[in-house]
Amino acid sequence: ARVMGLDLPSGGHLTHGYYTAKKKISATSIYFESLPYKVHHETGLIDFDELRKSALVFRPAMILCGASAYPRVVDFAKFKEIADEVGALLMADIAHISGLVATGNHPAPFEHCDVVTTTTHKSLRGPRAGMIFFKYGDKIPDIKERIDMAVFPGLQGGPHNHQIGGLAAQLLEVDTPEFKEYSKNVCVNAKVLADTLKSKGHKLASDGTDNHLVLWDLRPHGLTGSKVEKVCELASISLNRNAVHGDASALSPGGVRIGAPAMTTRGCGQEDFKKIAEFLDRCCQICLKVQAEKGKKLKDFEAGLASNADIVALRKEVEAWAITFGYPGL
């Protein structure tokens, strides 16, 4: 069967059918015939015109919508139009945005999609688990039985009842005013982070964010995500290197992905996220300085980080600032 999912450098997830010219990477591309769709090279938004053209030729059995690093609203209605036109099932992966969907801070996919999947430990802020939603209909009358059999015994063994209990407790919390306020603040804080980085001259994928994450394109600085990730790690800042649209290789990504949920959970507000942007900007300046002195090779760059006085000073400042924020339950 054929499937279409968002390309990894465009913000898609490995499990949405990713493969390279030499190797099929995920099980989705190994067991299915996969064709990626992409974001527009200028706007950074999903290119629905090209998606439609490809779908009309490729005729997938299923289109996957959803992403791992897409900072904008996913237009499920547009996906539905294309899926219906080519006779494909529509599946939404809302792993990253399910907390926002549950609180009305992102449009819901359920009206438009045949199947919706999500993990539960990202913006939903629960334990590591997953949920599958499906819609009864004429397309697949036995869809419940097929999904049940695919989960067990097809893919999983015994149930993790402690995870199920933890998820039930978290879903009760999701329905509280406090969680709704948290979810709203996540989006506000991410936007403040994005706007502050832009004001300091940095480029962002799609030029900003509508959700909980910011995708920082480091290529205009001549830096890679690996270098900035390493310096941030040494400065006690957690983020991850991430492919951005146009990257030739996912192994040498040109950006980093930054999320707002964790520090929002710890009580950070808009002014605090401006401070975080300042820390990130300083990490970037350190990277540029080290690269100018040691060269562009990652091995030489990392050797130049040992006992770097700028990093040591920044780490002390970051840790002294971060320790003023609490942790839920502690």
Explain this structure:
The protein has 330 residues and is α/β, with parallel strands linked by helices. It has two domains: 2-174, Type I PLP-dependent aspartate aminotransferase-like (Major domain) (Aspartate Aminotransferase, domain 2); 185-322, Aspartate Aminotransferase, domain 1. Helices cover 43% and strands 14% of the residues. The protein has helices at 27-31, 48-58, 76-86, 98-102, 143-155, 161-174, 177-199, 225-234, 261-265, 270-294, 298-303, 309-322; strands at 2-6, 33-37, 62-66, 89-93, 115-119, 130-134, 203-204, 213-217, 240-242, 255-259. The strands form two sheets. Strands 2-1-3-4-5-6 form a six-stranded mixed beta sheet. The protein starts with a strand and ends in an 8-residue tail after the last helix.
Topology, number of strands = 10
Largest sheet: 6 strands, mixed
| Count of domains | 2
Secondary structure category: alpha/beta
Quaternary state reads single chain
Relative helix content:
40-55%
Examine the coordinates and then state which fold CATH places here, giving the name of the CATH topology of the largest domain: Aspartate Aminotransferase, domain 2
Q: CATH class of the largest domain, please?
A: Alpha Beta
Mean pLDDT value:
96
- CATH second-level architecture of the largest domain: 3-Layer(aba) Sandwich
The main sheet orders its strands as 2-1-3-4-5-6
Function: Interconversion of serine and glycine.
Modified residues (N6-(pyridoxal phosphate)lysine): 122
Pfam families: SHMT
Pathway: One-carbon metabolism; tetrahydrofolate interconversion
